Amino acid sequence: MFIFFQPNPLEKQELDKGKRADCAIRSLCAALDISWEDAYDVLCKYAKEVYEVPNGKIGFEYAIQKIGFEIKKLPRVQKGDTRMTVGKFSEVFPEKTAIMNCAGHYVCVKNGNVYDSWDSSDKAIYSYFELNR
């Protein structure tokens, strides 16, 4: 089930609605139950180690693995088949806390719910990061 989630305090300003490229930060906030500021700080700390930005693929994925997430691959898709979607993952694995890597987007699935600022349930998953705590 989709749950609207936008921890960025400036997103609530009318001029900024829908213009923030902070899905990496937002997904980590939802997964760890931390503030936007704390998520940003921890991502910056680790992304800096690899001289990358915290919301880019290299910086973000390096950082969340350092935090305790493990990369997981879904079964290979055969030609003509479709990839698993975020919504389907939330139904099949309701016990997992994970961050999905989709085309140009990161989103958190936790307790069978999709946490995002828009309903990204139909996005196809390329890989995901499962929290191992």
Report on this model:
With 133 residues, the chain is α+β, with helices and mostly antiparallel strands. The protein has one domain (21-131): Cathepsin B, Chain A (Alpha-Beta Complex), CATH 3.90.70. It contains 4 helices and 6 strands. The protein has helices at 23-32, 36-49, 57-67, 86-92; strands spanning 2-4, 69-73, 97-102, 105-110, 113-116, 125-131. It has a 6-stranded mixed β-sheet with strand order 1-5-4-3-6-2, sandwiched between helices. The two termini are 24 Å apart. The mean pLDDT is 90.
Put the structure in a nutshell.
The chain is of the alpha+beta class.
Structure keywords:
alpha+beta; 6 strands; globular; Cathepsin B, Chain A; 133 residues; 6-stranded mixed sheet
Layout: helices, strands, pairs:
Layout: E1 2-4, H1 23-32, H2 36-49, H3 57-67, E2 69-73, H4 86-92, E3 97-102, E4 105-110, E5 113-116, E6 125-131
Parallel strand pairs: 1-5
Antiparallel strand pairs: 2-6, 3-4, 3-6, 4-5
Helix pairs in contact: 1-2, 2-3
CATH architecture: Alpha-Beta Complex
Oligomer: single chain
Main CATH class: Alpha Beta
If you consult CATH, what is the topology? Answer: Cathepsin B, Chain A
Write out the strand line-up for the largest beta sheet, numbering strands in chain order. 1-5-4-3-6-2
Query: Which band does the percent of strand residues land in?
Result: 15-25%
| Overall body shape | globular
Helix content: 25-40%
